[in-house]
Every structure is written in C-alpha cells, then in structure tokens.
C-alpha cells in the first residue's frame, strides 16, 4: 500500500492505494467525483478526462501513485458561471451528457493554451473525445463562444 495525497477540486484527500490502482477509481470511489467516467477503459474516448495542473489526463490509464501531490480538476470543480460551462449550456452542447465533463475539461485546456483557436484547432484538440449522441457541431460552437467571451473580458 502507498499513501498518497491528491487535491481534487481544492479538497485534499489522503488515500491508500495499491501500485496498480487507477486514478479513475480513486477519483470516483474516494473523492466522489462522479463526472469522471469510464467510457472505453483504453484512453480513447475522453470520458475519464481530468486536469492535472491544467494538463489533460486520461484517468482510466493513469496510475494513482504517479499523481501523489497533484492538483486535480474534474467537472465538479467548475463553477456554473464558468465561461466554458455557460457556453456549453447556451449552445445546447449536451444530449445525454455522458461525454460532456471530458469535453469541458479539454476545452478549458485548449483555451488556456490557445485563447483564440481556429475552428480546425478546436477540432484537432477535441479529437480524442467521443460523443455518441453526435453533438459535435454544438460542442464546437460552445468552445468558439467561450473563446469569444474570454476575448471580451
């Protein structure tokens, strides 16, 4: 057993984990962050995306011990008034909602790295996330709208 410390959405958690314990399981079972979901289990769909220090991580592939001391953000850590969250709402970018937490976090990562992305840059950055409902046009519009909102501020 390894004792690790994770700060999840500003709350510190002390967790005992095995070497092979996945970050996804710690976030769901210990930290109670149910927005982090296992969609494919192989890091190909984006449903398990979290931000570690602002960088996206597929938590279904990540070993928890490697994130000892990390600052993690999940969708629960985003305020409803967040520009990306409100843009997704305003653009009707969710149907079933299963994939949206991953898309929100990937969008925040993109906009922090590139505040004025082109349409192609948005598409390229989000290509690892899958929406089974097919709301890609709405998601794309939401990211562009969030970028515009940030530019106005």
What are the main properties of this structure?
153 residues, alpha+beta, DNA polymerase, domain 1, 2 domains
Protein architecture, described:
- With 153 residues, the protein is α+β, with helices and mostly antiparallel strands.
- It has 2 domains: 76 residues, Roll (Ubiquitin-like (UB roll)); 70 residues, [2Fe-2S]-binding domain (DNA polymerase, domain 1), CATH 1.10.150.120.
- The protein is built from 5 helices and 5 strands, in the order E-E-H-E-E-E-H-H-H-H.
- The protein has a 5-stranded mixed sheet, sandwiched between helices.
- Strand 1 and strand 2 form a beta hairpin.
- The longest helix has 17 residues.
- The radius of gyration is 15 Å and the shape is globular.
- The N and C termini lie far apart (47 Å).
- 41% of the residues are buried.
Mean pLDDT: 96
The computed structural class is alpha+beta
Percent of residues in beta strands? 15-25%
Please outline the major beta sheet: 5 strands, mixed
* C-alpha geometry: globular
Indicate how many domains the architecture comprises.
Answer: 2
CATH architecture of the largest domain: Roll
